[in-house]
Recover the amino acids of this structure.
């Protein structure tokens, strides 16, 4: 099992780890711990580099394989058992962190606008643009109100907290305390320990394994680009950080 450093602290930019597996046929390695984010939950993988005594390589892809994290490298592979230093491409990661926290604010703002829990049926984060699909008919005129709600929360500088629960009932208690702004635990969430909840204080709480900001002020400038009707009562909102 690979220890996920970013689970507790997504601001870790460099770290040391030990190589526990080398897979030459895949140009990949497994580390005992990592701060690199593996692609999941609609959030792209991190890139960067690793350095070891006598060599270095680019990290070009990161993926979960069961409870291990595979780091796909461009260049040489470090020896099994060696100690490496990992360096995250921070500009790329931080932009994705801003986008991910903005996505949670967008989800909450749509709930606020319609005063009910609006199902999210699809999402994807990107460096240039992100999207979120809602099971609701959202009109072009609604975007201004949704935008205003988000901007208010960004300007207020709401704290963003990471909660790690071993007891599902404690996680559920936090989610339920937010009413329509509380996410739901799926069977997949219940099978993992710890259960990770991202809380934007006074706004919402949602199960999430992604990387987030410490404060909504860090979202900075953003734009709700446009809305698109996807049919069957689904509306896609495209958004980006600037």
């Amino acid at each position: 099992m690979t220890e996920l450093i970013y689970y507790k602290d997504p601001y870790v930019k460099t770290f040391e780890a030990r190589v526990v597996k080398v897979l030459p046929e895949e140009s990949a390695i497994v580390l005992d711990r990592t701060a690199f984010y593996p692609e999941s939950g609609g959030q792209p993988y991190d890139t960067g580099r690793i350095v070891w005594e006598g060599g270095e390589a680019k990290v070009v892809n990161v993926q979960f394989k069961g409870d291990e994290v595979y780091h796909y490298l461009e260049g040489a592979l470090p020896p099994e058992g060696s100690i490496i230093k990992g360096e995250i491409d921070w500009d790329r990661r931080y932009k994705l962190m801003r986008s991910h926290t903005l996505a949670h604010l967008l989800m909450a703002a749509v709930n606020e606008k319609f005063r009910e829990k609006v199902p999210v049926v699809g999402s994807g984060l990107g460096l240039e643009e992100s999207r979120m699909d809602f099971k609701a008919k959202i009109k072009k005129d609604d975007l201004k109100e949704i935008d205003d709600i988000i901007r208010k929360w960004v300007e207020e500088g709401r704290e963003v907290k990471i909660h790690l629960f071993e007891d599902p009932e404690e996680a559920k208690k936090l989610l339920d305390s937010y009413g329509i702004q509380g996410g739901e635990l799926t069977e997949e969430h219940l099978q993992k320990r710890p259960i990770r909840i991202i809380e934007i204080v006074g706004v919402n709480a949602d199960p999430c394994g992604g990387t987030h900001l410490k404060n909504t002020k860090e979202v900075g400038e953003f734009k709700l680009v446009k809305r698109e009707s996807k049919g069957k009562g689904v509306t896609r909102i495209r958004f980006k950080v600037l």
